Amino acid sequence: MGVDLPKRVILDIPDGGAKPVRLPRWWKEIQDVAWVDYERLPMPSRKDERWRFTDLGKLALSGYTVSTSVPQGTRGELQNFFRGGRAPGLLFANDSLLFSEPLSLEAKRKGVLLAPLLDAAADAPDLLKSWLFQERVALGAEKLETLHRACATAGAFLYVPAGVEMEQHVDLSFWLTEGNAATFPHVLVVLQENARARIHLRFGSTNSCGGFACSVQELFLGAGAQLELFTRRNWAEGTCSFDLASVRLARDATATTFQFNQGGGYTRTESRSRLLGPGARSVMLSATVARDRQEFDQRSFQEHAAPNTKSDLLYKNALYDSSRTIFAGMIDVDPGARQTDAYQSNRNLLLSPDAEANALPGLEILANDVRCTHGATIGQIDPEELFYCLQRGIPLPAAQRLFVLGFLTDVIDRISDADARRSLAEEIDSSLNDKVVPGSSLPSSLRRTSLLPPAQ
Amino acid sequence: MTEHQGTTGTDLLQLDRKVGDFHYEVKYAYDAGAGLSEQTIDYICEAKNDPDWLREFRKRALATFLREPLPTHWASKQLEELSFSQIRYYLAHGQQAGRSWEDVPEEVKRTFERLGVPEQERKFLAGVEAQFDSEAAYSNMKDALRGQGVLFVGSTEGLHKHPEIFRKWFGKVIPPGDNKFAALNSAVFSGGSFIYIPPGVKVGHPLQAYFRINAESFGQFERTLIIADEGSEVTYMEGCTAPRFDTATLHSAVVELVALPGAKIQYITVQNWSPNVFNLVTKRGIAMENAEIRWIDCNIGSRLTMKYPAVILRGRKARGEVLSIALANSGQHQDTGAKMIHLADETTSNIIAKSISIGEGRSSYRGMVKIPNHLKGCKNNTECDALLINASSRTDTYPAITLRGNRSAVQHEASVSKISAEQIFYMQQRGLSEAEAMSLSVNGFVNDLVREFPMEYSVELKRLIDLEMEGSVG
């Protein structure tokens, strides 16, 4: 068992027109150290509590290649999608930057920086160096996190100076286009004191089956900074993916992260919120629609290291067919973290006799002046409520769909940004259509805008 | 308020510990010496006149014990401090338990009298077994029950005199290979109770076992097997104490319950070991159709307790319940919890766990609930609440829930809090001292569980909690 990504693949320049990757020496050193660590670290094992319930058989991978070229047709498809966004952003496919939309002049003037990592390494090396690869998520996938460190070159760096509030949101998307392709996206966000940003992050495939993704998000929030990050994940069938995210919050900083998960084969997300300054607040939200034999393996860690911090986690899963979900969360309260208010909730709706939900909510509390609660439920749609709908002439599939929609929309209601709320609700709505057309991982709303002429 | 809570309240359990913290010199007729090997097993087998199948069983279990690693990848590292070669595995005064207190050797009888066992027996118990180190010193039951065919004897007597019932279930609910400590118990077990309740017999008063560790560096490995035949009912209570020694003492019991269709078993534990005892116990019951098993578990003593009573819900409409109270004072880790394994339709289970951590005490809840996909109409409810008294107290919750299929439901909820300052202020305004107010709050926190204990025990429990709380505020 092991991810077959020999070192030379990374260092060699693949054919197919992708630009050779020129890394500065300091970065290359990080990669070399990571390679040694990667080879030393053990694969996840059944004995490890942090992999409890995971079907480790789904991690058995080999034969992926980094920097696979993107076919011309796919390029056009992605371009259409990119135009749909119309916000500053970057689009990568198979780790190559395909399209970018610059920041507004005003944002540039205020000192905001949005750049692919490689450009930042050339233009602002010192700034990048002081933030890149500073965090470890370490909720079990250390080996994969290290693999990412050894391989990642594609990614975005968003830097917002103190006091700057970005008007426009930023669109970042990372795509796989071939079944044998691998991608290692890196998202680095630094918000200085009282800065503010909104990011839409999308992971998806244009091919219909297979692929490997291992992404890392490093989010740094200075005192009073505010970040909203909306992640949509929709890999092709059979894709094995890891997304490891860490958010660091200084005094009075606020982060809201939301994930909408569908598709893929095995998807593991690790999310760590580190509340390091008094008054910091982290809201962690997730909505998942699991179908077929998909497995969503979500691990979270709410780390309260300062007094008066607040965290609020809500992960909801709707499970169809033979899908599986795992939620393993931990709230950790340090001895000095008085007046902590922590909440963790995992709700699962089983819609098929073969679906399986696993919940491992956890608490480790070392301070006494706290309020910490967690809850987990696994259940079904109340048959009486379904019966009520049938009585009133709503057919069973439509009724079921309504309940699932209501169940998941509950998560979205926690988002304060109205536009994001609307677009996410639409996307969840369309994901519940019985069967998604193969290869159409682009959201229906965007497909409509890009393929049909605008109504006169 | 938190200020002086943080500095005091570390040493409070001593008051009630004193109940069990005494020690009389006893001469043992049998002593297997320190350390564990095949010879130890042979010694125990000779002393107890075990049949050959049991000798084989013990030796196989020993091999499993030696092979299995300590479960330190998830459990407390404190386990590594256990030195298996320094423990004495078998110490007995004699092989026959007395039927009346006159037959019990003087120093052993003095011990139990001081613990109040004979007095409780006269007052409200249907039968008593008192175990002193490895063997029972006293065992008796009301004549009326004997007439109804109820069996309440030690495990050795059970396997010698009633092999047809004993062997059918022995080691079936908890096989020796279940975990390292179940294997250890299977290898060297001695003492414990064997109870059989015939069909339809409802035992009105509780049967009680009292477990006493008297010797230093000793390991007590009792083995209890309770079989409630169709439609019968029984309540079993166990209490345990030991004097305080500097060296680690090990208590590793295996308790197997079998509730045949329609039977009800209630198993009550008040564990008050001294703070040098490692209490590593495997408890599991199997409930057939319409049967009910309730574990009512109260852990106050010991240094490290690891105990997760389980119910296997094997028959339709079987019901399992675990009610657990844990109190962890400085130097203690109460790692308790519950397991519910649903294997039949319409089975229901309920877990309510409350823990209180005082001083530097640590309490953990670990749970497992499993419902496979071919079942319908299964339900589980889990609630665990933790109360932290001092700034340095600690609590953890680690439940694990697996549910397959859309015809069952599970809910779990846990909360951690401290005593509300407003409540205390309110009571102080009305003339209660801070200590009284704290004590009242804590009693309120566990009150609904304490009520489930038999009257005599719940009064005692409330008194213990009062004593504990007294010093935790200034």
Q: Roughly how much helix do the residues of chain B carry, as a percent range?
A: 25-40%
Round the Cα radius of gyration of chain B to an integer and report it.
22 Å
Low-confidence runs of chain A (pLDDT<50, min 5 residues)? 6-19, 435-456
Question: Count the helices of chain A. How many?
Answer: 11
| Classification by helices and strands of chain A | alpha/beta
Helix content range of chain A: 10-25%
Output mean pLDDT of chain A: 86
What is the β-strand count of chain B? Answer: 24
Which structural category do the helix and sheet elements of chain B fall into?
alpha/beta
Main traits of this protein?
heterodimer; A: 456 residues; alpha/beta; ten-stranded mixed sheet; 11 helices; 37% strand; globular; disordered C terminus; B: alpha/beta; 24 strands; disordered N terminus
Topology diagram in text:
The complex is a heterodimer of chains A (456) and B (474).
Chain A: H1 7-11, H2 25-40, E1 65-66, H3 72-85, E2 89-93, E3 96-101, H4 105-109, E4 113-116, H5 117-123, H6 125-129, H7 142-151, E5 155-160, E6 170-176, E7 181-183, E8 186-191, E9 196-205, E10 212-221, E11 226-235, E12 240-249, E13 254-263, E14 266-275, E15 281-290, E16 295-304, E17 310-319, E18 324-333, E19 340-350, E20 356-365, E21 370-379, H8 383-391, H9 396-412, H10 418-431, H11 444-451
Helix pairs in contact in A: 2-7, 3-11, 9-10
Chain B: H1 2-7, H2 14-17, E1 30-31, H3 38-48, H4 52-67, E2 91-92, H5 106-115, H6 117-124, E3 127-132, E4 135-141, H7 143-147, E5 151-154, H8 155-161, H9 163-169, H10 180-188, E6 193-197, E7 207-212, E8 219-220, E9 223-228, E10 233-241, E11 249-251, E12 254-259, E13 264-271, E14 277-287, E15 292-299, E16 304-307, E17 310-313, E18 319-328, E19 333-342, E20 348-357, E21 362-371, E22 379-388, E23 394-404, E24 409-417, H11 421-429, H12 434-450, H13 455-470
Parallel strand pairs in B: 3-7, 6-9, 7-10, 8-11, 9-12, 10-13, 11-14, 12-14, 13-15, 14-16, 14-17, 15-18, 16-19, 17-19, 18-20, 19-21, 20-22, 21-23, 22-24
Antiparallel strand pairs in B: 1-2, 3-4, 5-6
